[in-house]
Design a protein that fits this description.
The protein is an all-alpha fold. It is built from eight helices and two strands; from the N terminus they run E-E-H-H-H-H-H-H-H-H. InterPro entries: Reticulon (IPR003388), Reticulon-like (IPR045064).
Length: 217
């Protein structure tokens, strides 16, 4: 739990002494994904960011159609493979072959199992929130969905996905670099939000009649 240290002067803001017990790299999984999100491999992280930016530019700014882009990529790939195969035969070299990793049944099975587990866990979390067991979390989810709906009216879905990718790809590295400053602001914001919720709970939420929640069998 974070500790808050108050100075003797009441006008001085509280100072946060929050420290993580586990490194951020371990909290993000500790694998290649964590290395990419924390920019430990700068070339790979920059390449993914550049690729996502190019895709967003092609579809959103240049108004490139997905089917047209897919056909152009297929044509280019077929031409490269055709030239490579014929040149390899003339120079007594091996023609290009599809890597076994792409067609690996084990890789597809692991991906499907991982996706199923995460999807099941996500649906379970959404069900718990929608049941109203934690009213604060329920109201926060409603507010976040409303904010996302408002933002969705202002920009396209692709731009919204790109913005989400940009946040996921950059915010963990920025947080690791400016951890103390972010924790200090987070503690202050949490105190203000807790005070606001107590006022809202005492004036409005306690007056709303709520029946007992039936447990699902």
């Amino acid at each position: 739990m974070p500790r808050i240290i108050y100075d003797s002067d009441s006008n001085v803001q509280p100072k946060s002494t929050t420290r993580r017990r586990r490194p951020l790299h371990d909290l993000l999984g500790g694998g290649k994904v964590a290395d990419i999100l924390l920019w430990r491999n700068k070339y790979l992280s920059a390449g993914l960011l550049a690729g996502a930016t190019v895709i967003w530019f092609l579809f959103e700014v240049a108004e490139y159609h997905f089917l047209t882009l897919l056909c152009h990529i297929s044509i280019t790939t077929m031409l490269v493979v055709f030239i490579w195969s014929n040149v390899a035969a003339l120079m007594d070299r091996y023609p290009p072959s599809i890597p076994k990793v792409i067609l690996s049944e084990d890789a597809f099975r692991k991906f499907a199992l991982s996706f199923h587990a995460k999807l099941t866990r996500g649906i379970s979390i959404l069900h718990d929130i929608a049941s109203g067991k934690d009213l604060r979390l329920f109201l926060l989810a409603i507010a976040l969905l409303w904010v996302v709906s408002v933002v969705g009216n202002c920009c396209s879905s692709l731009s919204l996905l790109y913005l989400g990718f940009l946040c996921i790809h950059t915010l963990p590295a920025l947080y690791e670099r400016y951890e103390d400053e972010v924790n200090h602001l987070a503690v202050r914001g949490s105190q203000d939000l807790h005070t606001f919720y107590r006022k809202l709970d005492s004036t409005v939420l306690n007056r709303i009649p709520r029946g007992p929640i039936k447990k699902m069998r």
